[in-house]
Amino acid sequence: MSTKPFPPAVPPAISPPAHPARLTAVLDAPLSRWLWLVKWLLAFPHYVVLFFLWVAFVGTNVVAFFAILLTGRYPQPLFDFGTGVLRWSWRVGYYAYGTLGTDRYPPFTLADVPDYPAHWDLAHPQKGFLLGDVQATWVTGGPIGLLTLCARVALAATGLYPRGLFDLVVGLNRWVLRVATCAALLTDVYPPFRLDQGGGEPEAAP
Predict the structure, then answer these.
(1) Cα–Cα–Cα angle for 88, 92, 96, nearest 5°?
(2) What separation in angstroms does the CA of 144 have from each of 28, 99, 147, 176?
(3) Terminal alpha carbon distance of the chain
(4) Is pLDDT at 204 greater than 60 in this prediction?
(5) Rounded CA gap, 70 and 10, in Å?
(6) pTM, whole model, 2 decimals?
(7) In Å, what is the CA distance from 35 to each residue of 118, 137, 143?
(8) Whether 9 contacts 138, CB under 8 Å
(9) pLDDT tens profile 113-168
(10) Contact 154, 103 (CB under 8 A)
(11) Which is nearest to 99 in space by CA: 136, 46, 143?
């Protein structure tokens, strides 16, 4: 009796490790074709508040730097403030020219808002760390700005935000926030050199 060899086993797909900084977003529909023309004006109060919040964030980051040196931990109140500033910035960017993924006006709060379509959170590190040689730039004037310009053209012409373009823009924002989180000493996990696109975070491999 002849026997046939078993086909080689296919190794299971390995998911990338989950990053402690988690950015998620839901593309709202329908989006206005023309609201993006005045979002710079509508979001102006947020820009004013965020200016002062970022000034305070730089100051608290200096305090946290010395606290880490002395105690080995990032003080929880300063950590919560820093993550809140980044969360607020992400929501405003998602509404305005960082993504243009929603027409819902962002709330004025450092806390997470469960029913808002853009979320960002970060787990508090379990140990102390010291990493200050990484710099991040919110590249709204670079690739992200160019891609959201394409989104504006698509919205004006068709009333639709191309899904592939949305996934790419969110992925770029996710990468920028991961780098910013590391540079601000909020985590000791080095940002991976990969672009996790789409509104959902990749889950860790089992």
Answers:
(1) 170
(2) 19, 8, 5, 10
(3) 41
(4) no
(5) 50
(6) 0.81
(7) 18, 26, 22
(8) no
(9) 999 999 999 887 655 444 433 333 444 457 888 899 999 999 999 999 999 999 99
(10) no
(11) 143
Nearest to 100 by CA among 88, 118, 85, 120: 118
Could you tell me which residues are beta bridge partners of residue 22?
A: 121
Rounded Cα distance, 146 and 155, in Å:
14
| Residue whose structure tokens are 């949305």 | 166
CA distance 177 to 106: 18
Residue 153's φ and ψ, nearest 5 degrees, are -65, -45
Q: Are strands 118-122 and 21-25 parallel, antiparallel or unpaired?
A: antiparallel
Closest Cα partner for 86 from 115, 62, 119, 124? 119
Q: Of 4, 2, 180, 187, which Cα lies nearest the Cα of 93?
A: 180
Nearest to 179 by CA among 188, 166, 165, 191: 191
CA separation, residue 126 to residues 64, 186, 187 (Å): 15, 11, 10
Q: Residue 149: how many CB atoms within 10 A of its CB?
A: 13
